[in-house]
Amino acid sequence: MGPAASRPLYLGPRIKRLRRELGLTQAAMADELGISASYIALLERNQRPLTADLLLRLARAYKLDMADLAADERDDYARRLADVLRDPIFAEIDLPALEVADVATSFPGVTEAMLRLHGAYVREQQALAGLRADGGATRGLDPVAEARRFVADRRNYFPTLDSRAEQLAGEIDKAGSIREALRQQGLRVRLLPSDVMMGSIRRYDRHNEQLLLDDTLTPTQRTWQMAMHMAYTALRPEISALLRGESFASPTAATLVRRALAAYGAAALVMPYDKFARAVDARAYDIEALAGQFGTSFEQVAHRLTTLGRPGQERVPFFFIRVDEAGNVSKRLDGAGFPFAAHGGGCPLWNLHSAFRRPDEVLTQWLELPDGQRFFSIARTVSSGGGAHGRPRTLRAIALACAAEHAGKLVYAAGQNAGGQEARPTPIGVTCRLCNRADCAARAEPPLGREILPDDYRRGAEPFAFAES
C-alpha cells in the first residue's frame, strides 16, 4: 500500500459544510453519529482525522456517496490557494510552496476565508472593468438579472413542471392533504419550536426521513413549505431537465433559477393549472377569493396569475412586481409588455408605492405611459416573517398590471370604462431618467438627453424646466 493510500483523511471543511447544509448543530450531528460534540469540533478543525468507521457512518446517516465524501480536499485546497497567491497583488511577498500547503492543511478555515475574499475582489475588479468598457453594462455579473432573464425568456411558463405537478396534485387529492401524501411516501412531517429549528422554517432531515417545520408557521405557510419540499424532490427530474445545458455566469445565478423553478412547481402543486384557470374565470380574477379557495396567500395567487400561458388556455397576461418601502425590487415578472420590466426603477405616481400607507387594502389605478399605452393596476401590501413576539416582520407591496383591453375581465375594474371619464388614467413614466413629461411635480431628476433651463429669474412649479432642444 502506497503512502497516499495510508495517509490520514482530514475533511474538516467538508464535514462543517455538510452539517450547515443539513441545518444541524454539532451536538445534533454527534448524536446521530454516536460520538461526542467535542469530537465533531475537532474533526471540523482538522485536529482529528476521519476514520473509516466514521466515514461509513456519515455516508449511511445522510445517504451520501462514500467515494465523493472520502475525496481528500487538502490537495485541492493547496492548489486553489497557490493559484490565488500567484495574483500579481502578492508579487512582492515570499510565499514558499511548503508554507502554502501547510496553511491549506492546518488552517482550512483561514484558507476558505482567503479564497472567498479573493473571489470577491476578482468579481469587483471585473465589474469595474465592465463599467469602463461598456459604460455600465454588467449583465453577466448580476446573478439576479440573469435569473430574471432566464424566466422572462420563457415567458414565465414551464409546461413540464405544470404537467407533472398536476399529476402529483391528483395524488394529493386522493391522499386528502399534502401532509398525508408525504406520509404515504414515507416522510414524516414534524412541527418543532423555533429554538429547535435554529433559524430555519423548513429543514429536511434525511437521516430520519422527516420534514421539520417551524411550529409558528400558519397553516397556509406550512402547506407552502411542504409544497416547496415536494417541488425540490418529486419535481427534481423536471427541474434538472430545464437546467441541463444552461451555462450561468455564477453559482448564485444557478441557485436563484433553481429556486424560482421550485417556487413555480410548488405553486403548480397547490394551484394546478386546469383547476386554477377555471377558478380564475369563475371568480373574475378575485385574488382574495382565490387565495381562500386554494389555501394560499395573496402574493402566491398573484404570482401564479403570471404563469397562465398554456397554448390555447391562456388567461390575462400580467406584469408582477414586488418592492419594499425603500423602493428596492425583490421580484419582477413580465407577461404584459410593461416597460418597468425592461428598465427597472419606478414612478412615484404609481400607487404601488403609496400602498404602504393603506396596508392590506387592494388599490386599483389606470395608468398611462408617455407613449399612450394604458394599463390597469392592482396593488396591495403583503408581509412575511413574524409569527411570535419579537420576531421581525417584513412589509412589501406587490402590484399586478395588465393592458387596458383586458381589464374588463377583472372584478376590480367592474363598472369602469377604460376610455371614459370614470377611468381617468394617471400619467406615469418608466423612470425619471427615461420620462420626458415636462409637467411632473414628482420628478426626481431630469431625463437623459434634455437640457434644463436656469431658474435665476423664474422658478416653475415643477422641479425642472426643459429647453426646447
From TrEMBL:
Matching entries from SUPFAM superfamilies are given as: lambda repressor-like DNA-binding domains
Which segments constitute the HTH cro/C1-type domain? 15-69
Give the UniProt entry's GO cellular component terms: cytosol
Question: What PROSITE patterns does the annotation carry?
Answer: HTH_CROC1 (PS50943)
The record's listing under InterPro entries reads: Cro/C1-type_HTH (IPR001387), HTH_RamB (IPR026281), IrrE_HExxH (IPR010359), Lambda_DNA-bd_dom_sf (IPR010982), ScfR_C (IPR018653), TransReg_Diox_bact_type (IPR050807)
Give the family from UniProt. Belongs to the short-chain fatty acyl-CoA assimilation regulator (ScfR) family.
Q: What is this protein called?
A: DUF2083 domain-containing protein
To which species is this protein native?
Novosphingobium olei
| Lineage summary | Bacteria, Pseudomonadati, Pseudomonadota, Alphaproteobacteria, Sphingomonadales
